[in-house]
């Protein structure tokens, strides 16, 4: 075992590499604020919404692929903002990136990806054209004569 490894100098060098890759001290603090995690990895792609996808094979399998959500979402991001083709890559359903997969279907009738809007003002709200079975009681009006 080398003296540098014994003194954990490789860990310190790795720490400075992570800080540098995440945009220095300010960028690293911003990423810690938004994501609670600092990682170093290779940028493998970006989707049409600005989400960036990274991979680092030094991490454990299952933890070596991740997404950094676009700044357009501010702090209001969730998993439904990842398109299906990138979802498959993130969850190891395929090792091919979306732009490298020749067998990925793309038909004219396929609708573009939209995120889940539940809990927002854009959520789907069904309406009914039938009378409700239970109606609220309204007190009788008093005549003002």
TrEMBL record:
Presence of keyword Transcription: no
Segments forming a coiled coil: none
Keyword Electron transport set for record: yes
Subcellular location(s) of the protein: Mitochondrion inner membrane
Pfam entry (one): NDUFA12
Family: Belongs to the complex I NDUFA12 subunit family.
PANTHER family with a match to the protein in the record: NADH DEHYDROGENASE [UBIQUINONE] 1 ALPHA SUBCOMPLEX SUBUNIT 12, NADH-UBIQUINONE OXIDOREDUCTASE SUBUNIT B17.2
The protein, known as: NADH dehydrogenase [ubiquinone] 1 alpha subcomplex subunit 12
Protein's organism: Papilio xuthus
Gene for this chain: LOC106124086
